[in-house]
Amino acid sequence: MSINIIFGSDSGCTKKIALEMATRIDGRAVNILKAEPSDFTDCSLLILGCPTYGDGELQIDWEDNLALLQEANLDNKTVAIFGTGDQDIYPDSFVDAIGILYDIVIERGAKVIGFTDTAGYQFTRSLAVRDDHFVGLALDEDNQPFETDDRIASWLKQIL
Q: Which residue, among 24, 136, 159, 119, has the nearest Cα to 84 in the 3D structure?
């Protein structure tokens, strides 16, 4: 199985997680700044990673290169999404970025896997929640870093 993990990161947190995932699953991590259109389509599993900035915005590199995703033919492509956020400072927009990416890949014909339970998080609203589940893996390295390793391991087991 070929796996591409396309991520954006300013502070390095999402990059660190993408690289760790790539190592665990023998995948290929690609910074969105260096991504090519084929990186979205030439793989068995596409994983997208993005932190949420401000009041629910995509990370700037994702924002600047979003056309790559919006133009990708994802018909029947299997996609999983993860994101980082801060549920204490931004409880009304916690991991909104993964909800934004989710909406785009669904529009492009993708099959999204890796929904996770919202239990164990303290937030009030998120664009990433559908039917009481996150549309991917939600990580909060600011407030729950002790949960990250187990959450990643469980999620990777679920999507593989």
A: 136
